[in-house]
Amino acid sequence: MMIKIKHLILTFLFLPFAAWSQQHIVTLSGTVKDAKDKSSIPFVNVLLKNEKDSTFVAGGLSNDKGLFSIENLKSGNYLLVVSYMGYKTRIQQVLIGNLSNFQDLGTIALEEDAKALKEVVISGAQGDGLNAKMDKKSFALAGNISQAGGSVLQAMKNLPGVTVTPDGKLELRGSDKIAVLMDGKQTAMTGFGGQTSLDNIPASAIERIEIINNPSAKFDANGNAGIINIIYKKNKQEGFNGKIGLSSGLGALWQRQENLPGIRPQYQGTPKFNPSVSLNYRKNKVNTFFQGDWLYTRTLNRNEFAERTYDNGDRIEQQVKRNRITTYATAKTGIDWTINENNTFNISGLFNREKITDRGDIPYFNSISKERLRLWQFLEDEVKYTATASANYSHHFQQPGHQLNASFNYTFHREDEKYFFTNIMPSFTGEDSFKLLSDEQVSDLNLDYVRPLKYGRIEGGLKFRHRSIPVNMQFFPGLNSPLDVNAGGWADYRETIPALYGNYVLEHHKFELEAGLRLEYVKVDYKVNPGHNTYKSDGYQYTKPYPNLRLAYKLDDRNKFSVFYNYRIDRPNEVDIRIFPKYDEPELIKVGNPALRPQFTSSLELGYKNNWDKGYLYAALYQRITDGTITRIATPAPGSNILYNIFQNAGRSFNSGMELIFQQKLADWFSLNTNANIYQNTINAFSVENKYPVPVIYSATKEQLISGNLKLNGMFKFAGKFEAQLTAIYLAPDIIPQGKIDSRFSMDLGLKKSIQKGAGELFLNATDLLNTLSIRKNITGNGFRMQSRDYYETQVFRFGYSYKF
User: Fold this and answer.
1) Which of 101, 91, 89, 98 is nearest to 121 (CA)?
2) What is d(CA 358, CA 585) in angstroms, rounded to the nearest whole number?
């Protein structure tokens, strides 16, 4: 009995959330014609039956033009029975596949007189979080109880293959080169090549998250690790309906590491507050919607203790403490208009305001004498505005799934940032500041065409993007200022990218093929203030093809192998090449590099999936080879202990690994989802030159390390509509630029209770329940070594309520 209890406890400790279940649904269409004169035959009886036992599945009549369509079909093998008085009944085998939501059988010719045929076979296919092509995983945030009330970034850390770096970046399978989309589009909220603001977007606003490891040519070629698509909530029920919610919480309940002497207290008992509302009204052909969220949070955003040791014998002990207050408001609204059965139009707008106030303290001590060398304090006052407008028009031809889509998207993003510094030295105190203003404007025009085939589809399209980011940085030095006033001024980033793509999908009983090609022309101009003391205007242009290929073999209805190949690019973001130094950490200064160039990656993956009635197993072997690897390199200025951290192209790197996903419904009350990802990161030896503030050469030997992560997720369903979720995450040691990050472990717990006949919902959860998550790093550079540990806020308790009407 004790052994059984121990096994039950161990099972409970290593669980969390099961992947969102989705069923692949297909619409089958065709046109019935006379075999002799090729004229259309109206009102023909069309039936679909199980091939195995001849049971009826679906059916209907062709319209006055002979066109028929049968909707909501599951994958499998069927018999199509087409009959009409005076004609022979035609029976043909039909494979309903997994690769397309629409299949066109083309013309079905009927001959005169009728004759019965035998009927044969079918088996169904099970849908789940991993789609049939094995290139995309989908997860509904409604099932993520342990992260309810938190941010999108926090919710993502539970997803297979996803990790979050210490500076808040997402990684897929060990790479942070990810394209993040909102409703299928890039916006300045999530960044073009970065993931800014994800930690402030409330998870309550999001319907689901899609992870696409092997994107087709339809998607932009940016992001070698793949694409994460964040889908906002939108209801389309008839009449007026909606949902309101309120969540609150507390973090940093106790102090994990005492401050170094003489600085302001760390934030403790940090409050979180997030009201949200979702409204929808649908009548006849018009659907209107509104989604609003407001988030207020205090956070101990960073609390890092470090020691730097220099070859000359100097040892510096420091702390970087950042207390943050964030308010984040988002409103999204729009109209969907079904003009007629062939044409739809929708327009939507999103407005976002993010206000960040940081109060930082960075003391520096002589580690040997314990004498304080400097106290650097700062106040950051930053406001970001984002406005996005989208218009989409779709024309649906008579053949289901045959459509033409045109869309235009415009994004405006303003970054208004002010820093005020107090530099307290043994002999004086200086007051310094700077102001940065950046206005980003992005225009995207898209045209997409899709036509179903008998077994597959063809699609193609074009995209044109224009992006401009003028930036102005002004320094205001005080007494004995350490700021480099000659590094300020203006810079203007402009990017133009026209692209064409084509994609072909073919599916038979045993084999599947998907092949695509995207052709992109890129022109980047970066003009800088002629008086800048280091950097000059720069830019580049090129034309590149980006192929993708997928081949699959189906052993049977439950077992499939797939091989993927992708060639993709990671273009430097404007922030990566921004010429202005940042002084929020005055002895580890970050600077962009206008000479930074794109990195190109070839990816190869072999995937296997086995379905069974209540679960599945997915396994993948993958390798990415990257040329021109983008990374940050820190070097000291000659004769100084100040480090300058600058983006560089480091040469060739490799990422090879294996991913396993196991999902099983073990009982009516318990589901288990586990994900293991093991990979080897390799960076070949390289040498680069950091040019700011003076040229310094850095050379690195080959680095290699095996790393990975393990995630165990479990969902419990109890009587009285009570649910629980437990999540355990282990991250193995990994290499980072010039060093290594140690292992990390955390556990999250969530509870949920449905009330008010299912219309209401209460939740309570805790992230990092055991308060074990902290970041330990070891970095080695030219003439220095640094060891650090960050005790930033990870443990947060939240509770909330939502009501659907």
Assistant:
1) 91
2) 13
pLDDT band (50, 70, 90) for residue 120: very low
Question: In Å, how far are 71, 381, 409, 527, 571 from 182, measured between CA atoms?
Answer: 28, 27, 12, 30, 19
Bridge partners, residue 485, by sequence: none
Distances (CA, A) of 158 to 170, 202, 232, 366, 506: 12, 16, 19, 41, 34
Distance CA(15)–CA(378), nearest Å, equals 42
Give 555-568 as a DSSP string.
SSSSEEEEEEEEEE
Task: Give tens-digit pLDDT for 392-423.
Answer: 999 999 888 899 999 999 999 999 999 999 99
Instruction: Tell me the C-alpha distance between 449 and 461, whole Å.
Output: 6
- Beta strand pairing status for 226-232 and 178-182? parallel
Beta-sheet strands, E only, within 35-156: 45-50, 56-61, 67-73, 76-83, 90-96, 102-110, 136-140
> How far is Cα of residue 92 from the mean position of the Cα atoms in its chain?
43
481, two tokens? 């200022």
Q: Which amino acid is at 120?
A: V
Residues 6+ apart with CB under 8 A from 717: 668, 669, 670, 723
Bridge-based pairing state of the strands 686-690 and 643-649: unpaired
Confidence check: pLDDT of 116 > 60: no
Query: Rounded CA gap, 690 and 696, in Å?
Result: 5
* Residue 541 structure tokens: 């242009």
Q: Alpha-carbon distance 561 to 557, whole Å? A: 12
How far is Cα 200 from Cα 641, in angstroms, rounded to an integer? 35
Give the Å distances, CA to CA, from 169 to 166, 256, 264, 286: 7, 24, 28, 39
Cβ atoms of 563 and 606 within 8 Å: the answer is yes
Vertex 597: Cα angle to 591 and 599 (nearest 5): 115
What does the radius of gyration of the chain's CA atoms come to, in whole angstroms? 29
DSSP state of 217: T
What is the greatest pairwise CA distance in the chain?
106
pLDDT digits (tens, 9 = 90+) for 633-692: 999 888 888 999 999 999 899 999 999 999 899 998 999 989 999 999 898 999 999 999
CA distance 217 to 649: 26
- The C-alpha atoms of residue 76 and residue 73 are separated, in whole angstroms, by 9
Edge-to-edge strand ranges of the sheet holding 56-61: 56-61, 45-50, 76-83, 90-96
Residues 57-96: pLDDT tens digits?
A: 888 778 877 888 888 888 888 888 888 777 888 888 888 8
Give 372-432 as a DSSP string. Answer: EEEEEEEEEEEEEEEEEEEEEEEEE-SSTT-EEEEEEEEEEEEEEEEEEEEEE-SS-EEEE
Rounded to two decimals, the pTM is 0.79
3-state secondary structure of 143: helix
Contact 786, 760 (CB under 8 A): no
776 Cβ neighbours under 8 A, 6+ residues apart: 741, 742, 787, 788, 789
Q: Does residue 659 contact residue 674 with C-beta atoms inside 8 Å?
A: no
CB 48 within 8 Å of CB 70: yes
> How many whole angstroms separate alpha carbon 628 and alpha carbon 60?
57
- Taking alpha carbons only, the member of 105, 29, 24, 104 closest to residue 451 is 104
Q: 301 φ, ψ to 5°?
A: -70, -30
Query: What tokens were used for 540?
Result: 């580049």
Contact 352, 344 (CB under 8 A): no
Cis omega before residue 693 (within 30°)? yes
Amino acid at 361: D
Asked if 410 and 389 touch (Cβ cutoff 8 Å), the reply is yes
What is the b/e burial string over 16-30, where b = at least 16 CB atoms within 10 angstroms of the residue's CB? Answer: bbbbbeeebebbbbb
d(CA 148, CA 338): 34
